[in-house]
Amino acid sequence: MDSKHHIVILGAGESGAGAAVLALKQGFEVFVSDSGPISPKYVKELEDAGIEFEQQQHSEERILSADEVIKSPGIPEKAPLIKKIREKGISIISEIEFASRYSNAKTICITGSNGKTTTTMLTYHILKDAGLHVGLAGNIGQSYARQVAQKDFDWYVLEISSFMLDDMYEFKADIAVLLNITPDHLDRYDYKMENYAESKIRIIRNQSEKDVFIYCADDPETIDILKRHPAVAITYPFSIQKEVEIGAYIKDEQIIIKLDTEKEFKMTITDLALQGKHNIYNSMASGIVAKVLELRNENVRASMGDFKNIEHRLEDAGKISGVNFINDSKATNVNSTWYALESMTTDVILILGGVDKGNDYNMLKDLVKAKVKSIVCLGKDNKRIHEAFEDDVDVIVNTFSAPDAVKMAYHLAKKGDTVLLSPACASFDLFKNYEDRGDQFKAAIKEL
Question: Which domain of life is it from (predicted)?
Answer without folding.
Answer: Bacteria
